[in-house]
Structures are given as C-alpha cells and as structure tokens.
Design brief:
mainly alpha; 11 helices; globular
Length: 284
C-alpha cells in the first residue's frame, strides 16, 4: 500500500511540476519567486501547484497586482520563498548525512546549518540584494533575522515529521530509494504549514516581502512605476516596471516597531524549534 501511495505521489508531483514550470513563465512575477514556486512544487507536488494557482497565478490579464496584494497571499509568497531556499540546503544536508552515516543530533545540525546557510546567503541575500541597494553585505544584515525566525519554524515541522516517519517507513534514510524523497517531501510540506504563521508576522511587520508583480517596459502600468520609485526599488531591478503590490504601504509604515518585539518572536522561534526536536527524538 505504501508503495502505491508513493508511486501516485511522484506521478502527481511530476505532472504538477511540469504544469508550474510551463505556466509560470507567463506570470508577471519576479524571477526568484518563479524559481521558488518551481522548487516548492518539486518538494510538495500537487500541493505546490495548488498554492501557485491559488496564490500567484494571474486570474485575468492586468489583475496580478490586486490579486497578490491580499495579506494571506503575501504571507504565502514569503513562506514559499523560505521553504524553497532552505529546502535545498536541508535536503543536501540529509543526503550528505546519509553518505557520511551521520545520525541523531549531528544529522539535524548539518541539515539546519546547510538549510539556513543556503536560504540566507543565496535565496534571501544574494537573489534579493537589489532591494538593499545592490549591496550584498547590507542584504545579509537585512535578511538575517527574518531568515532565522522562518527557518526555526520550518525546521521544527520538518524535524518532527521526518524523524517520526523514518521510524515506520523502511529505507527512508537512503537517498537512493523513493521512500527517502517521499519522507523529505512530507517534512517540507509540514514545515511549510508550521512556518506560515511566522511569515505572516514577518510580512505584517515589514521584515519580509511577499508576492511581487514584474511587468516589462511599455506595459502601461504607470501607477506601479510611481510605487516602485517611492519604495526605493529601481525599475531596472524589477525588469523595468512594477513591483510588489504592497510595497508602497510598507514604505509608509517602515518606521513602526514590530509587535510583538523581535526578541520575543526570536525566543518563541527557538522554543518551537526545541519542541520539534523533542517530538523528533521521543522514544519509540
């Protein structure tokens, strides 16, 4: 029965990935977010494709800006961006741990460090450095807290799910078996759900961005040019035209202090991570 479920999962995942990879090319979204949805669909199969259609795919021509402006879609985009980037490092850590025969806390440490490292230095700071004036060091500084909080929640769900499933699914620690990839998919899917609330808070307090709208020059979206200029984002950075729909609002409210304060949310994120670790290593 497990083999049948796994086979069905991968067939649906392949079809979903093909759909998203082809369809998203015409969606007026930033390149990094497009790659994010492709990666998310590779991790979570039909769920990723559903989230792309529900949260990012333009319903009708010219409506993408209004469509993605909803707070829950902004939080969805932020969470997707986190899972897509961190997931690469986490999976790489799991594969490396398998080859080097790391187990327990050592395996968790490797996955966390690689997941956080790739998500922060590449998917957050490097790919989004234009939002920090093109400065990579400034981008690293600006994205550290948001990446840390989001990673802690993601890893909490990932840990609890993967370590629990490994107890019951044979060969789930072997990257050469489908069971390994199925378990990792389930872990990232649960991690996405657990990380969504903190990403809502990060977006609401202007510590992370969500969906964006990027249109080519000559598309006639003059109003969005004005918003891009007021938010400090160059037209060249965004392909010559528009940007994230809520950026104007974010620039106006940027001086407000986050509530609850960042230290409180940071402590909460580590408590959630600790809870995930406890569940992961509960005696069988």
């Amino acid at each position: 029965m497990l083999d049948g479920i796994t086979l069905l999962w991968f067939l649906l995942a392949a079809a979903s990935l093909l759909f998203v990879a082809i369809d998203i090319r015409t969606t007026p979204e930033s390149v990094v977010m497009k790659w994010g949805f492709v990666l998310l669909t590779a991790y979570t199969g039909v769920v990723g494709a559903f989230l792309y259609v529900l949260g990012c795919r333009e319903p009708l021509p010219g409506l993408h800006e209004q469509y993605v402006a909803a707070r829950w879609r902004q939080a969805l985009g932020s969470t997707m961006h986190c899972v897509a980037g961190d997931g690469v490092g986490i999976i790489a850590g799991a594969v490396l741990s398998s080859f080097l025969h790391f187990r327990g806390i050592t395996e968790v440490f490797v996955e966390y460090i690689l997941g956080f490292g790739f998500g922060w230095t590449i998917f957050q700071a490097l790919f989004m450095r234009d939002m920090s004036g093109g400065s990579y060091p400034r981008a690293l500084k600006n994205t550290f807290v948001a990446e840390l909080l989001s990673m802690n929640f993601l890893m909490a769900g990932m840990l609890a799910t993967v370590m629990t499933l490994k107890r019951y699914i044979p060969s789930a620690d072997n990257p050469f078996t489908p069971n390994f990839w199925f378990v990792m998919s389930m872990g990232l899917l649960v991690g996405f759900v657990i990380a969504y609330p903190i990403n809502w808070w990060l977006v609401a307090n202007h510590l992370k961005h969500g969906m964006m709208t990027v249109r080519p020059r000559g598309s006639g979206t003059v109003a969005h040019n004005t918003q891009a200029a007021m938010s400090g984002m160059s037209h060249e950075t965004l392909g010559g035209m528009a940007h994230a729909a809520p950026m104007l609002h974010m620039s106006m409210d940027a001086g407000k202090l986050p509530s609850p304060p960042i230290p409180v949310m940071t402590l909460l994120s580590f408590l959630v991570l600790a809870a995930g670790a406890v569940i992961a290593f509960l005696p069988m």
